[in-house]
């Protein structure tokens, strides 16, 4: 079946928030735990909810909440100054919209902040839906939020691709029955992404656009 729509992950796929996330993790762990952790440890769970990520640093519910609150405190304070779109994203989204594709985002970030970032970087005008962590009871790597996105776009899974930069994105998209696209400009390396058996792997957004148009 020809592709009629695309659902995207947000952070690391459309919006470059790597430095924002890392600085927020460093701030939170220093403030709450009294020490920081290696970068690869801090970023390992990116792609899942913030609450889930913080359980990697503690088994105490009270400390976990403090970590989440401290992360959000720093993140919100600097968010608008730091977020930016990856190269070619805005132009590529315009081409996909012009081709008649339905476009949306399914993210593990809370809805309001995700939408704010997408507006700042200029991607929001091309989107027909956004499913945030607070819009669905379950979150990636569970396929449930992708299924919500499919319903919002009015598409079957066979008609829609899911595009993301983390293993959790590919796991969720595959489980939802979508063709999946792993992008190599985000947090995770190619080996980790290919291990999840994405349908496609792309190195830049122009490559993704060309691939989509070939499959319309």
Please tell me about this protein's structure.
Helix 1 runs antiparallel to helix 4 and helix 5 (about 90-100) runs parallel beside helix 10 (about 205-215). By secondary structure, this protein is an alpha/beta fold. Helix 6 (about 110-120) links the parallel strand 4 (about 100-105) and strand 5. The protein folds into two domains: about 5-15 and about 85-215, Rossmann fold (3-Layer(aba) Sandwich), CATH 3.40.50.1000; about 20-80, Orthogonal Bundle (DNA polymerase, domain 1). The termini are close together. About 50% of the residues lie in helices and about 15% in strands.
What layout of secondary structure does this protein have?
Elements: E1 5-8, E2 15-16, H1 18-33, H2 39-42, H3 50-54, H4 61-82, E3 84-85, H5 89-98, E4 102-106, H6 111-121, E5 129-131, H7 144-153, E6 160-164, H8 167-176, E7 179-183, H9 190-194, E8 200-202, H10 205-214
Parallel strand pairs: 1-4, 1-6, 4-5, 6-7, 7-8
Antiparallel strand pairs: 2-3
What multimeric state do the chains show? Answer: single chain
CATH topology-level name of the largest domain: Rossmann fold
> Please, how many domains?
2
Report the strand count. 8
Concise overview:
By secondary structure, this protein is an alpha/beta fold. The protein is built from 10 helices and 8 strands.
């Amino acid at each position: 079946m020809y592709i009629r729509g695309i659902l995207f992950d947000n952070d690391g796929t459309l919006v470059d928030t790597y430095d924002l996330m890392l600085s927020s993790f460093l701030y939170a762990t220093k403030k709450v735990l009294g020490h920081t952790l290696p970068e690869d440890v801090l970023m390992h769970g990116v792609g899942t909810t913030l609450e889930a990520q913080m359980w990697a640093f503690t088994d105490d519910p009270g400390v976990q909440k403090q970590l989440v609150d401290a992360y959000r405190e720093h993140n919100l304070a600097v968010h608008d100054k730091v977020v930016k779109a990856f190269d070619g994203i805005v132009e590529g989204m315009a081409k996909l919209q012009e081709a008649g594709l339905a476009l949306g985002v399914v993210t593990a970030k809370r809805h309001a902040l995700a939408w704010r970032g997408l507006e700042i970087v200029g991607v929001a005008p091309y989107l027909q839906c956004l499913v945030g962590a607070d819009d669905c009871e379950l979150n990636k790597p569970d396929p449930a939020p992708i299924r919500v996105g499919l319903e919002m776009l009015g598409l079957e899974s066979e008609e829609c691709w899911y595009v993301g930069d983390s293993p959790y994105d590919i796991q969720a998209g595959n489980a939802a029955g979508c063709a999946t696209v792993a992008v190599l400009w985000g947090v995770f390396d190619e080996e980790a992404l290919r291990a999840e058996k994405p349908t496609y792997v792309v190195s830049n957004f122009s490559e993704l656009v060309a691939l989509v148009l070939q499959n319309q």
